[in-house]
Amino acid sequence: MLLYDKFKIVEINIRSDISFNLLHFTKGGDEEAAFKNLLKIIADRKIEARTTSDKVGDVVCLTETPFACIQENNGFKSCSGFSFTSCFGILFTKSYLYQDYGARPVLYMESDFIASLDTNLKWRAQIFQPKFIPFYLDKNQRDYHWQREWRTNRDINLDNEHYHIIIPSDKWLDRLQTELEKIGKTIYDNCIKEKKLDYDEYCEECSDCNDPEDFLKQNIICITGDC
Description:
The protein is built from 6 helices and 14 strands. Helix content is 26%, strand content 22%.
């Protein structure tokens, strides 16, 4: 497995079960909805922290599951093949989110232990009440430790230097690049209007508006490995 430092390969990791990255996958009723949710994240330039099902606070959910494992299983899935998410997402280095956004591993705990936690720690907690049987046999069980989840309790702002875009396969590549071009131009146009600048005007303030071409340079990874 490859170890990245701001997505530049610096060494080889001999432990295939350990990842130096964190991934956030989108959800949706189908692939189209999940793709649109990915585009919204990129257009908004942030992943919003949202309330968990246990209502322990607003968080962004991520996984440290090695990307090679996700590729091998064609998605982010449990041992029995169950999945909550799509194959669209965003990849970050673990060190970046740990240092800049306070991302931490989830604490898988019984509800009694969660109740005893200080309020400022509960956002890290996930109820753990396993039955050690496939999820489809009992969907009421609370065993999500297979997700290897990390969380941060704040929005994650996207800047082009610190993330990769994940898509299922190369069949989405042309469409994604077309949408990225539109997003880049819209963000640039809005920035110019907000600053009340002339398009032909060369000034220091113009450099504060991201070049639309930057979005087309964004690294894209296909789960199928064919991008």
